[in-house]
């Protein structure tokens, strides 16, 4: 699976990113491959495009106010390129499907990581998975939908080895992740 991935880290982001661009791209590829069976036909592709912007609280608060009419910082925003799955013309089937843009506040992620008692790397992966699910069409308008979405997030982190099924509190350091493992469809992560 090919993924056109664009990462931008705002100069105002107050902390260092806990993942390299290559690691983030591998995570997203692994997750996209594993989620294929759950996607409508119109969103199943061999090629995708996703962008991620990492910012501080002030920047994400401004976006939150502008696009969601909510005050204050949030952890992740997802701006899906497609609201509804639509048929994709056959001649464009090889072109990357632009899923949209994610924005993650590194400040909020660090604060939430401390509150949860885990590392910034795990919280960042958690938020990345949440944003990706939104780009793919998942939403959580009620508690039941939220529970289902959080279950998918947990499964994505477990599959990538970010958290351990048997020891949920134990976290791999990003450089130790077994990202070359096979996906459920038998393909590797790269």
Automatic annotation (TrEMBL):
It comes from the Bacteria. Its EC number is 3.1.-.-. This is Endoribonuclease YbeY. It holds the Pfam family YbeY. InterPro entries: MetalPrtase_cat_dom_sf_prd, YbeY, YbeY_CS. Keywords: Cytoplasm, Endonuclease, Hydrolase, Metal-binding, Nuclease, Ribosome biogenesis, rRNA processing, Zinc. It is found in: Cytoplasm. It comes from Aphanocapsa feldmannii 277cV. Its cofactor is Zn(2+). GO terms for biological process: rRNA processing. Belongs to the endoribonuclease YbeY family. It is an enzyme of class 3 (hydrolase). Single strand-specific metallo-endoribonuclease involved in late-stage 70S ribosome quality control and in maturation of the 3' terminus of the 16S rRNA. GO terms for molecular function: metalloendopeptidase activity; RNA endonuclease activity; zinc ion binding. Zn(2+) binds at residues 130, 134, 140. SUPFAM superfamilies: Metalloproteases ('zincins'), catalytic domain (SSF55486). GO terms for cellular component: cytoplasm. Binds 1 zinc ion.
